[in-house]
Amino acid sequence: MQSWQRLSDPIKRPVVLPKRFAASSVSPITTALIILLIGAVTRFALIASVPMWWDEVWSLWQTQGSFAQTLALTPYDWPPLYYLLLRGWTYLVGFNDVTGRLPSVLCGLIGIALLYRVARRIGGAWAGVLAALLYAVLPYMVYLTVEARGYALLLVLVPLLAWLHLRWLAHPTAWRRVLLYAIVLALCLYTSYTTALLIGLTLLHGTLFVITCQRAQRRAITLRWIAVIALFAILLIPLASRLIGIAQVRQKNISEHLAPAEADSVLSNFYGWLAGRQPILLLILILFASIGLFLWWRSNRQNKPQVITYLLLWAIGAPLIMYVLRYFLLLIAVRYLSYIVPGVILLLALGLSHLPRVIRPVLPIALLMFAVAPFPVELYRPPLSDEKPTRDIVRELGQRYQPGDQIAIDPHCNCGNPVEWSFYAQIYYPGGLLTPISDSAPARRIWYIADQRATDAALIKRLQTDRVQTEAFGPYYMIATLYKPAPQPIGGLFGDALRYHGADLPARQPLHAGDTFMVNLWWSADAPITLDYSFALYVIAPDGLLVVQTDGGPQGALIPHQTSQWQSGVLYDDQRSLTLPATLKAGTYTIRLAAYQSWDNARLLPDPTLGQQVDRALVIGTIEVFNY
User: Fold this and answer.
1) Cα–Cα nearest to 265, from 201, 319, 312, 341
2) Fewer CB near the terminus (10 Å): N or C of the chain?
């Protein structure tokens, strides 16, 4: 009882470190800004480079409607707060995969500042610095505060709850903290149901404080504590129906023995997620922190129960309880332990900050090793969640788009689900809508998406009717291939056997001075060709002067580079690239085509029916050029 009596004594002032543990001479503001900068860099490095996985896509997808629709689409196992806030955010700043992650990054930066304040209150300035740095660089914390899910909001509210709880222990007779304390308790549960255990342990800790407090203050403290609990219960009334619903679903899953497979390894997985690619480093930090905690215990005997009891309940008690009850609660996925990470960080920071002074300069360097190690994204996502690069495929399709393009997805390809395609199309594809292949009105250009390990032969045969494969991109398990026909099915001859079927000029015009653009030339052979011909493209200015040209044999990844290897009756797509001079004047420029023998530069005579000719060079079109 004596130790609990110490626990119940209000803390009159924040606990501070002895002078030998005082923070360095660096300005606290400078230190805080450096840590926030590190936290920002580690998060913004991932915000666009790591594609969203299915849960993130759904989080943003469900916020496209009204607030009422967002609420209706909220998954049964999540409270609505994060999704409603995300709906408000997308309404203000727009809808895409980068801006959708910005609230999580902002929450992460706020969380760094809050945890610094909590650790500083517990163990002094140096503990605050280490706690903030751990929050900024631990891979699991970085990932959770980039992902577009509710965990980032949770990792702001949990340190705020700890801050308010410690302040209430220090000043339990003040009414002004009652309302804010109750609101934050409720917000935690409105963000994630998994915080119910932490809330319960926090209320238990507070109740023991009230029971063992000094008799003279017990009545005043009890009234205020009852007010906190009562206000918290009132604030939960709108959530009551959802809480009952999830309890019923959980009970059904328990009766059907639907415990996840990772139930028995959740604690070891949790350590692995915390450590990322540095498990040995984290183990060393834990060992050193344990020594530091012992030193802190010895030097702060008077204040140790108030702090250490709550931290142990939070960082060690909560995961142990969840593990013991893992088959009953079904709350055993590693993600369900995310609210415990700030408590673990506080214990580590408190212990490390009380190590001998000589070790202090090494600690920030050791912690920064987490930031420079390769980021283990694959640890934090379900297997195969990143297997299909749907975002990258849709983005590239948008960049290569031409009006009228259609999409054909092979039925054997596991190429993502329709929600993902629709989500990314709204962000990256012109018009925001992918047009599927149509039997009644097939497009001239059709993009075929397939896994090359298993394809539909009938669909490929249909695509190859009057079309040719011209370009492709993407990995073999989700490759996008363009099929399109020649502009002129019949065309005309150059010489005796080389048949020209037209050209594809840039679809997006006008061009600008300095632009590089592609011209696709379509050819076939009426008879076997024994010689290797070359082709020349010329850009001619309005005054008749040559601007730029390209010469050489056939070009492109899907075409033989010698005409002597061409087969009769097969279409070939010759792909040419030209770059306009940056000083080119605005105007209309003509493009001419010539086929010639490279050994003597003799040009083949184009069929007169193909159109205008100048010195045995065929005029194949014009381009408009702007220059600012």
Assistant:
1) 319
2) C
Cβ atoms < 10 Å from Cβ of 464: 12
Cα-based angle 199, 200, 201 (whole degrees, multiple of 5):
90
Tokens describing residue 610: 């193909």
pLDDT tens-digit series, residues 549-586: 999 999 987 889 999 999 998 889 999 999 999 999 99
Ramachandran area for residue 456 (φ above 0: left; ψ -120 to 50: alpha; else beta): beta
Sorted by sequence, the CB contacts under 8 Å of residue 492 that are 6+ apart come out as 499, 500, 606, 607, 609, 610
**Strand 617-626 to strand 511-512: parallel, antiparallel, or no bridges (unpaired)?**
parallel
| DSSP-assigned beta bridge partners for residue 503 | 521
- Tokens read off for 168: 């209430």
pLDDT for the residue 545: 94
Angstrom distance (rounded) from CA 361 to CA 352: 11
**Residue 8 predicted with pLDDT over 70:** no
Give burial (CB, 10 Å; 0-12/13-18/19+) of 215.
Answer: exposed
**Residue whose entry in the numeric block shows the structure tokens 């996502």:** 381
d(CA 435, CA 459): 17
Task: Report d(CA 588, CA 623) in Å as an integer.
Answer: 6
Within 10 Å of residue 172's Cβ, how many Cβ atoms?
22
| DSSP bridge pairs for 518 | 577
- Identify the three-state secondary structure at position 512: strand
- Among residues 235, 192, 240, 202, the alpha carbon closest in space to that of 78 is found at 192
Give the span between the Cα atoms of 587 and 532, in whole angstroms.
Answer: 36
Q: Which of 35-49, 431-445, 544-558 has the lowest mean pLDDT?
A: 431-445
Any bridge partners for residue 539, and if so which? 548, 591
Q: What is the token pair recorded at 262?
A: 């990772």
Interatomic CA distance for residues 589 and 402, integer angstroms: 22
Strand segments (E) across 131-197: none
Return the axis-axis angle of helices 28-47 and 102-123, rounded to nearest 10°.
Answer: 150
Share of the chain above pLDDT 70, in %: 90
Q: Which two tokens stand for residue 375?
A: 């980021």
Question: Taking the chain, what is the end-to-end CA distance rounded to the nearest angstrom?
Answer: 83
Q: Which residue shows structure tokens 């751990």?
A: 134
Q: Answer yes or no: are the C-beta atoms of 293 and 350 closer than 8 Å.
A: yes
Q: What are phi and psi of 404, to 5 degrees?
A: 95, -5
Query: 27-50 b/e with 16+ CB inside 10 Å = b?
Result: eeeebbebbbebbbebbeebbeeb
* Position 20 confidence tier, pLDDT thresholds 50, 70, 90: very low
SS3 label, residue 592: strand
CA atoms within 13 A on the CB side of 325: 9
